[in-house]
């Protein structure tokens, strides 16, 4: 072999080796490429299946079916590709995906549907979720006190992506929580109607007839929408609105929302539900169903609808919007219907397919609505009684934010009077026989049954000559009293000062509360109670019947009453003090109507039949044609849109208010109220101020009568050892004078130990002798030295007393001064006798009297005298000098006669039976009207 051939052979061998190496490398690369391609295909398969979801992947045509298009290699080999889901190379990945899929849903599959079913059953009991067989045709009984279902069933849902499609109930939030927006297609509009009808009947069948009112508006038809519900129209539970008058429906809803905000959502409440609390729903729901045509509303209608939606839920206005494009800045639940009949809703999300409940049986729906309407009519026509105003359990309400009192019924529903920060005071008007007393009893009974005495106090004042409020205080026949009453005043038509005293007490209480609020850095009673939970801060309601008597004359009483009333009316609201003023005729009260600041505070107006000037006349004349036993309740200062007309049940017959009072008294009587009866004379021995007197005070207190005030306190004079501490009684009536002198002496005797003080009773008029003897007997029984002298002994008494005083003043007395009280009956009757001068000393009995009056008080000798006229009193005093009489009580004396003895306010005094004018120049800036005591002389 030549070298050349050998070289060629080597080259060929090397090339062959190279070819083998290259082939091996290419084969390895090809295998690696195929492996990578397979892995990539598996990854893409897994990514696609996981991304689509196993449930959708197995239904996907591209993954489930073999493609009809073949590649060149598939044509060459005759081996077409398989469907991806059937390819063996994806089997492991598919198995793993299905395993992971099943594992991820394992917890849901095991317990999810059951948990949702239990949840719906727990928050949507009764018609809210039960099958229609259990409730359709049975009117509801719930009044809202048992709570409101949080969810309302619409159908059954399944999670379409789950390995096992276990069904569960689907329910949506509605009343007070969210509006409902339903979107349908032309083919599923009937399903939308069915859904609306089913939800409305669930709601109507859950609550008492009358608690839900339905309004229907359909852009496409005047009638025909929800025909099965039409029997509700005869009970005014369903209103169908004109398609061309959407604005009227929206205006009606807007006005209702406004009234709820001004009348119900007061005192910090944000929703009607929070006002009702755990009690009965006081404001009915209004469900407005709006059917559209998938076209936008007019811009003005859209904006108004959005405002209603934004503010409606808090006021009990619920919207069902069907096929109206709208965006709402308020909670809304959306249900979208598909062409295949299934639906999705925002409550469950897009991964749950909802199958709506089937339509209710066509024949049963009208029957069910008819039963609801009949029940509603039954409630409306039923004659409500006083007991229907009362709660099931007494004293369960809280008065922090105000008080609410059902007073009557309108179509079977309660109508309430509310007193709080926004409606602070009430004005009631109605002529005689219109039922004013009956209304007051209904209101007071309703209040007292709801609020305990720690939550509410009552101050009751009746100016007319009657006993409307007398039963609320303990009496001879009925020992019970109203536990909430702290003061009861009756027969005070002549004692207008008592009305002023009540207003002054309320003004003082208002300031006390304001000071406490300031210390806690708050401004309202509600906040004060929160900051000072241990304090006792009840709401105060003061009822003044026939209050026009308070403004009956142009005098100081009217001026004071007007000033105090304005103060309490203007500032009392924030301190929880509320006034209820009632009158037969308020039109002529100049002192009241002339003060707009007063009248504007009385935003609550109650007009009884034929009442004048209470409502905003002449625009509001609702009271003119009002039938008997009815009233107009208005919380908006009497303007017509605020009218609520209701029937007031009989509250004065036996077994009504009297029975409630007895029941509450037995439950917890509390302290008996104070009673001021203008027709009765206070008994001295029962007066707390008299019973509190004890011996030991160097300056004893003289009680002259009862002051006309809230506390029923006594008019008093301190007998200090200072000049002028003598008392004069001026008047011609023996009974009045004897009552004052007897009460004064008896109160003095109670403050001395036996035989410590001497009482000398000089009876200078025969008609006073029985009184003098009765007083002497009483003082002697208490262990005091009491003697009675007649007109023949008066000169000696005065002369000896004057001589003893002179001896004390000159230091020649043989003993220190001891208490000595000269009780003189009819001093002026001895004037002629006393004016006679002693021939030896040239001094008269008048001189001795003047000496006793001037020097006696410093030496513990005091005169309690009765003069039968002002000029007769002056005759006993030094000319122009009246200082020796420091206190006086005048009866049948005109005010101008007293001007020289007291301040200018005495000019307004006009005498009236069994009333005296009392003035102590050492203590008073203005005189007081007092009632003399009953000292027991008649018995």
TrEMBL record:
<dbReference type="InterPro" id="IPR027417">
    <property type="entry name" value="P-loop_NTPase"/>
</dbReference>
<dbReference type="InterPro" id="IPR002543">
    <property type="entry name" value="FtsK_dom"/>
</dbReference>
<dbReference type="GO" id="GO:0003677">
    <property type="term" value="F:DNA binding"/>
</dbReference>
<protein>
    <submittedName>
        <fullName>FtsK/SpoIIIE family protein</fullName>
    </submittedName>
</protein>
<keyword id="KW-0067">ATP-binding</keyword>
<feature type="binding site">
    <location>
        <begin position="430"/>
        <end position="437"/>
    </location>
    <ligand>
        <name>ATP</name>
    </ligand>
</feature>
<dbReference type="Pfam" id="PF01580">
    <property type="entry name" value="FtsK_SpoIIIE"/>
</dbReference>
<feature type="domain" description="FtsK">
    <location>
        <begin position="412"/>
        <end position="617"/>
    </location>
</feature>
<keyword id="KW-0547">Nucleotide-binding</keyword>
<dbReference type="GO" id="GO:0005524">
    <property type="term" value="F:ATP binding"/>
</dbReference>
<dbReference type="InterPro" id="IPR050206">
    <property type="entry name" value="FtsK/SpoIIIE/SftA"/>
</dbReference>
């Amino acid at each position: 072999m030549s070298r050349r051939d050998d070289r060629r052979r080597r080259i060929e061998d090397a090339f062959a080796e190279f070819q083998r190496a290259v082939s091996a490398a290419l084969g390895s690369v090809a295998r690696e490429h195929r492996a990578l391609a397979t892995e990539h295909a598996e990854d893409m398969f897994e990514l696609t299946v996981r991304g689509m979801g196993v449930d959708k992947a197995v239904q996907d045509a591209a993954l489930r079916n073999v493609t009809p298009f073949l590649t060149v290699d598939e044509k060459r080999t005759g081996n077409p590709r398989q469907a991806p889901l059937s390819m063996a190379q994806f089997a492991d990945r598919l198995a793993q995906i299905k395993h992971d899929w099943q594992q991820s849903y394992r917890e849901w599959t095991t317990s999810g549907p059951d948990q949702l079913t239990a949840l719906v059953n727990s928050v949507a009991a009764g018609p809210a979720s039960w099958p229609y067989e259990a409730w359709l045709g049975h009117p509801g009984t719930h009044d809202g006190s048992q709570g409101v279902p949080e969810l309302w069933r619409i159908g059954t849902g399944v999670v379409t992506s789950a390995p096992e499609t276990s069904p569960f109930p689907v329910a949506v939030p509605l009343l007070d929580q969210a509006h409902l927006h339903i979107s349908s297609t032309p083919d599923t509009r009937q399903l939308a109607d069915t859904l609306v009808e089913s939800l409305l009947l669930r709601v109507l069948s859950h609550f008492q007839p009358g608690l839900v009112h339905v309004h229907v508006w359909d852009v496409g038809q005047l009638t025909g929408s929800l025909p099965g519900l039409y029997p509700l129209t005869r009970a005014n539970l369903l209103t169908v609105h004109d398609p061309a008058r959407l604005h009227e429906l929206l205006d009606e809803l807007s006005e209702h929302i406004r009234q709820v905000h001004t009348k119900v959502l007061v005192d910090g409440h944000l929703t009607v539900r929070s006002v009702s609390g755990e009690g009965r729903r006081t404001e009915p729901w209004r469900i407005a169903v709006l059917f559209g045509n998938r076209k936008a509303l007019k811009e003005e209608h859209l904006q108004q609808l959005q405002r209603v939606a934004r503010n409606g839920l808090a006021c009990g206005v619920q919207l069902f919007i069907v096929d109206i494009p709208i965006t709402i800045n308020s909670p809304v639940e959306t249900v979208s219907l598909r062409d295949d009949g299934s639906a999705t809703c925002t409550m469950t999300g897009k991964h749950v397919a909802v199958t709506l409940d089937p339509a209710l049986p066509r024949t049963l729906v009208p029957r069910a609505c008819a039963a609801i309407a009949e029940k509603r009519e039954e409630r409306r026509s039923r004659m409500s009684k006083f007991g229907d105003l009362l709660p099931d359990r007494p004293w369960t309400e809280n008065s922090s934010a105000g008080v609410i009192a059902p007073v009557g019924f309108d179509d079977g529903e309660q109508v309430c009077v509310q007193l709080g920060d926004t409606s602070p005071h009430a004005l009631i008007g109605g002529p005689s026989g219109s039922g004013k007393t009956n209304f007051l009893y209904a209101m007071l009974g309703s209040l007292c049954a709801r609020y305990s005495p720690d939550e509410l106090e009552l101050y009751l004042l009746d100016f007319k000559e009657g006993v409307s409020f007398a039963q609320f205080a303990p009496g001879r026949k009925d020992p019970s009293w109203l536990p909430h009453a702290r003061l009861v005043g009756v027969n005070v038509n002549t004692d207008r000062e008592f009305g002023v005293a009540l207003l002054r007490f309320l003004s003082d209480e208002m300031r006390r509360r304001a000071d406490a609020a300031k210390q806690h850095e708050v401004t309202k009673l509600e906040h004060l109670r929160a900051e000072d939970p241990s304090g006792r801060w009840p709401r105060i309601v003061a009822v003044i019947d026939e209050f026009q008597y308070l403004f009956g004359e142009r005098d100081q009483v009217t001026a004071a009453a007007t000033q105090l009333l304005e103060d309490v009316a203007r500032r009392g609201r924030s301190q929880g003090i509320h006034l209820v003023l009632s009158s037969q005729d308020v039109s002529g009260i100049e002192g009241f109507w002339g003060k707009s600041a007063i009248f504007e505070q009385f935003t609550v107006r109650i007009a009884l039949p034929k009442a004048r000037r209470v409502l905003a006349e002449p625009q509001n004349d609702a009271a003119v044609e009002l039938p008997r036993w009815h009233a107009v309740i208005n919380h908006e200062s009497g303007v017509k849109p605020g009218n609520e007309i209701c029937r007031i049940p009989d509250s004065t017959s036996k077994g009504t208010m009297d029975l409630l009072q007895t029941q509450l008294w037995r439950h917890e009587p509390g302290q008996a109220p104070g009673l001021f009866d203008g027709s009765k004379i206070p008994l001295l021995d029962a007066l707390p101020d008299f019973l509190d007197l004890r011996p030991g005070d160097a300056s004893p207190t003289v009680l002259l009568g009862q002051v006309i005030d809230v506390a029923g306190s006594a008019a008093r004079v301190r007998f200090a050892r200072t000049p002028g501490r003598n008392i004069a009684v001026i008047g011609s009536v023996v009974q009045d004078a004897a009552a004052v002198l007897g009460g004064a002496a008896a109160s003095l005797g109670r403050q001395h130990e036996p035989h410590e003080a001497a009482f000398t009773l000089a009876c200078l008029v025969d008609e006073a002798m029985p009184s003098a003897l009765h007083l002497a007997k009483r003082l002697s029984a208490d262990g005091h030295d009491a003697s009675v002298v007649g007109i023949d002994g008066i000169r000696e008494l005065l002369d000896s007393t004057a001589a003893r005083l002179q001896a004390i003043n000159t230091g020649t007395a043989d003993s220190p001064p001891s208490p000595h009280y000269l009780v003189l009956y009819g001093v002026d009757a001895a004037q002629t006798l006393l004016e006679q001068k002693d021939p030896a000393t040239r001094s008269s009995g008048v001189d001795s009297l003047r000496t006793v009056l001037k020097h006696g008080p410093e030496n513990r000798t005091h005169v309690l005298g009765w003069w039968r006229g002002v000029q007769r009193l002056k005759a006993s005093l030094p000319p122009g000098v009246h200082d020796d009489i420091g206190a006086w009580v005048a009866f049948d004396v005109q005010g101008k006669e007293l001007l020289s003895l007291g301040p200018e306010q005495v000019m307004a005094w006009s005498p009236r039976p069994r009333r005296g004018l009392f003035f102590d120049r050492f203590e008073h800036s203005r005189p007081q009207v007092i009632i003399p005591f009953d000292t027991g002389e008649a018995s």
